[in-house]
Amino acid sequence: MKIFGLTGWSGSGKTSLMVRLIPALTGRGLRVSTVKHAHKGFDIDHPGKDSHNHRVAGATEVLVSSPRRWALMHELRDGEPELTLDQLLTKVAPVDLLLIEGFKRDRHEKIEVWRADVDKPLIAPDDPTIVAVASDSPVPNCPVPVLDLNDAEAVAALIVKRCGLG
């Protein structure tokens, strides 16, 4: 199973890109699942929520993690720690590609989603796991290729190439 991530600051558009990427990738015949990190507690699968959007977009399986619980629904009780990404990956059924949203400190390859209007610094210069940046504007002093955030097919093509799924 190949693993690839989207990272970036809150409000940068990671989920919006993810729900456009899933159909672009499944349309190429790939089986795709997602893992989404949530910084706060969450309730799963309500319309308008990220996990629901991932499923509706075509993900085979959705696994969401937060400090209070993780799902394929599993309540964390009595101070149990949040699972690491490596632990979570053992819970996901094998697919062609597992897309990771968040988990910016983990060491898998990622695309950074960056928007100037979020007014946060670019992560890519200090993170060698970021292989490209997706943005809706020019990215000054970017050390990696910059993709058009609105071109999900181009982003999908880069992921397919980096993962050897072509």
Automatic annotation (TrEMBL):
The gene is mobB. Gene3D superfamilies: P-loop containing nucleotide triphosphate hydrolases. Pfam families: MobB (PF03205). The lineage of its organism: Bacteria, Pseudomonadati, Pseudomonadota, Alphaproteobacteria, Rhodospirillales. GO terms for molecular function: GTP binding. InterPro entries: MGD_biosynthesis_adapter, MobB_dom, P-loop_NTPase. SUPFAM superfamilies: P-loop containing nucleoside triphosphate hydrolases. GO terms for biological process: Mo-molybdopterin cofactor biosynthetic process. This is Molybdopterin-guanine dinucleotide biosynthesis protein B. It comes from the Bacteria. Residues 3-136 form the Molybdopterin-guanine dinucleotide biosynthesis protein B (MobB) domain.
